[in-house]
Structure formats: C-alpha cells, structure tokens
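ping. complex inputs:
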Amino acid sequence: MATEYETFVRDRSRVLSGREVVLTLRDLSPGRKKYRGVNVRAVVSRPPRPDEPILWIRSVVGLKEPDPCSVRIVEELPEAFTAEPYSDFFDAMEKAERR
Amino acid sequence: MTHKDFRSFLTAIEASGDLVTINDEVDWDQELSAIGRLACERNGPTFLFSNIKDYGSQIRVATNPIATWRRFAVALGLPPDTPLRRLYEVYAEREDKAIPPILVNDAPCKDVIIPGDKVDLFDLPVPMVHEGDGGRYLGTWDLVVSKDAKTDWVNWGMYRFMVHNERLLTGFPRPTSHLGKMLLEGYVPQGRPMPIAIVIGADLPSHIAAAATFRIAGNEAELAGGLGQRPVELIKCETSDLYVPASAEIVIEAEVYPDRVAQEGPYGEYPGYRSGEMGNAICARVTAITHRRDPILTLDTTGFMDSSATTTSITGAIAIKRRLEKHQIPVVDVYVPPEGGVHLAVVSVRRGGADVAQKIVEVLTARRALMSKIIVVDEDVDVFNMAAVIHAFATKCHPDRGTHITRYQGRANTLTPAYSPQERIARSGATVAFDSTWPPEWPRETTPVRATLDSMYSPDVQRRVAQRWKKLGL
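pong. complex structure:
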C-alpha cells in the first residue's frame, strides 16, 4: 500500500465528514506508476492519524490544501463508475457511495 | 511537399535551428513539461528529451511541435521565415485541394505490437504536465480516430487523454466535439463501446488536420493529404476497423465505454488556465498498443501559446471566414491571434455597422461557440496588425451601441475561464461582438479621419517621406 495519496474534491465537507466516502485517490509513490488512480471507499481524517497513509486534498482547479489528512481505505472499488459518458463524475461517486 | 513523418520534420527543424536535443536526464514529473512551457512563453524551440528519469533512453519525448510560426511553416514544407499572412493563404489554398489517403499493409508503427492484456500505460514516459493536474496526460498533441455508428463518417480530432491506471484512459473531447457527437448520438443509445485510436507522432499535416476547425462529416485524412501535398498512408488497427496514419510513432487502440465514467482532469488547458472543468468526461479501455522501435512520444505543454494556439489561429480563422462568406457577410479577412487562447477573433468587413456585427455573432455561435469575443473592424484595418486592431477597437467601438451580445445554452465552451462552475456544467455562455467599424449611415463628410501617415497625408507627401526615411537610413 502507498504511504501518500492525493484526491480532488468539489465538496470538501463531504470528504472531511468522518464517514465512509467514495473517492478517487492518486498514488504519490515515486517511480513509474506515480499518479496511478484507484477508486476506493475510505474514511478521511484531519488531523492525520499516524498509522494511516497521508492524503492531500486538491480543489477542482488543482490547488493543494496546505494541511494534510490521512486516509483509511476500507475497500477498493472497480476502476470506473456506472454512468453515461459526460455524466457528472462527483454525482457518480456519490451514487456509488449509497450502494 | 512536406515531411513524410515526424522524424523527418524533426530533422528539418533541427536544420533551421528550431530544435534542441537534451541528453541529460530530465524528470517526466513536471520538469520536462516545464521546460516546454517556458519555450512556449518565450517563443523558444522544440525540445527532444532523450534521457528520461525512470525510463532511460528507449522512448524519447518531443515538445510543442508547432508552437511557433517558424515551425508551423516548416510543417507545411515552407521556409521558416514565411510571413504569417502567407501561411494563412497557403493553408486556405491547400484546404481546397484535398488528396485522398492510400491504404498500406505494413508500416513502422507496427514494429512492436502489445496486445491488450499485456498493456501497461506506465511503460510509456507519460509526463506530468503541470503541478496540480488530475493525472498524467498522454494525449496532448495527438490525433484521435473514431467512426460514426450509423454512417461511413470517420473523424480525426485532437483531444486530451489522461492515464488512470495500466489500461484505463479518461479523456475530454468536449460533448459538442465531433467525437462527442458520435459517441452520444450513436454508440451510447445502442449501449455499444466506441472504438478509438489515439495516434501519437504522425506526420504534421495529419495532426494539423485533426486539430483543425473542420466541418461535420468532413474527411480530415483528405485534408491532411491536401495540406501535405501528398496522400496520407493509412494502416488498419489491430483490434478495430479503424485506420490510422502509418507514419505514427505510437498508436493506442481503445474502446470508449458507453456506460462508465472515471476521474478526468483538472488540466491546464489551451486557454491558459486550469478551469476546474473536471467531472464530465469519458473513459476508455486500451485494447492494444503498437509503436515504432525506439518511439518518440509527443507533448504539447498545454497552456498559453502552445501548439494548438498556432494551429487554431489558422484553421479557426479560415473556418470562420468560410462560414461568414456562406452567410453573405461582407468579410475581407479573419485573424485569430494565438495570444487570445482561441477565444478572440478579429474580422474585417467591407461594410460594417450594427446589423453586420449582430449577424456575425449569431452565425459564429449557431452550433457550438468557441469564440467569446469578436472584434469587427473596417477593411482598412490589417487584422494581422494587432496594434492597428487595438487602436480601432479602443477608439471606434461605441461603449454602448457597439457591443452586441448573444447568449446561449448547451453549446458554450466549457473551458472558458470567465464562466462560473454552474455555467460550465450547463454549458451556458455568451459571445460578444465589438463593432469597431464606422456606422454605414454616417455621412462621409463628418466621419472621423484617422490621424496616421497613410490616412491624413497626401500620396505625394507619403512618397516624399518614405524617400527621406530611406535616405536617412532609418
């Protein structure tokens, strides 16, 4: 498992709610596979918990929040979400969250 | 005649002093792209990186093939110092002389064939283009082939694609693009995956044709032949019935899901901003990769003054001129300044006024609206001379009566930085025409006269001044 990830969020309160949420994480481990995407069901904590991988949050324009979180991955999900092309990706994640 | 493939183009721009090769190790994670970005911002050369961190020297990366007018000229087989107006003229002449492609059975792009189950996109040194992008972008200077589900129409377009994992790509051909139209109207209703081929490093005319603003159902392969003055050689894909330019360095064959999405973006785009348009894209599963031995991956370090800026400057301007002519607008010249991020067009007309400006803005936003600002000038203003254009705009455009706005829903450019997130999601926007012409109803005897040498002095004085200027060695 990676020790550092980043994720892009539109509604940060959802991600930081302390409950299980569906996210796409980008693996920040150095090397050829840096930035590999993985869809997960996870719990995000701020301040970060010492025994969990670091998670950096970025906005929809890519701005990085200065303070890190941590992430506990509960379950890895399929590589794509069910929705028609051009559907709102964040809505698709929230629908997957409710399943 | 133009260069038959990307490698011979690189040889030509090396000879003209427009290529720099870097043999020292460079990091694919931002550093390589940042060098290319600086080159865009300083009118610098193409870089060919031959030693990439984590990847070594087996696959090279070339940046911003035609981000300058010099390299654009070479791509059309012209001298690098060809004047801009002449480049526009040559493009327009060749666009009218389409040459059909020919099919071949063997090509270097098939030197290495990787079947889908062996594909790992991370084996390619795909750059992280900007800090804060949603991922690594493989498709920046590409050519994406797709075929209509109901007809024989084959589209070539230039669309961005990002690596999600070993075999999954996400991309953002806009829903109003030709590929988007094919997908939404053809394949999605039938629940069928849409085959595509992402072509990297083909001959330059093929990429220019793909990036060109071109009519629906137009044949970009024939356009590429016309632009290059030679037929483009096409070869069949391994996993679909699509045909791709045989000269390609790398071909990524894939299928777009009709019922799946994954994260795409955000990405620093051609308008020069990362606008937060992420969240409504497509995703595709790679079915095969074929490539040359020791292939070259191409990269446009997308943003202010990238390769798409020059390409769209010419192709967009000519498409605008043809459309205005079709609608009986008395158009003389059109210029799309690359500094405007494909949001600004300058149109000169033989006869201006409010009605003409209003009609121009309506015609140019009827199907999809990429331009958000149009400056309309009289024909005595050289559209390629932005100093003269700014002078006309600043002085002749009435702040109230000279502004003609049209608003639209569902066809706005979602990459326009000025739009709010809500407007971007709804694809709603507006385009304004700034009428910088004299109202035709104004009598000539009271219309202001421009205080420039060519307007406010007699031909005799102008001639004598020119002679004296020359005599003074100025």
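Helices of chain A lie at 12-15, 89-98.
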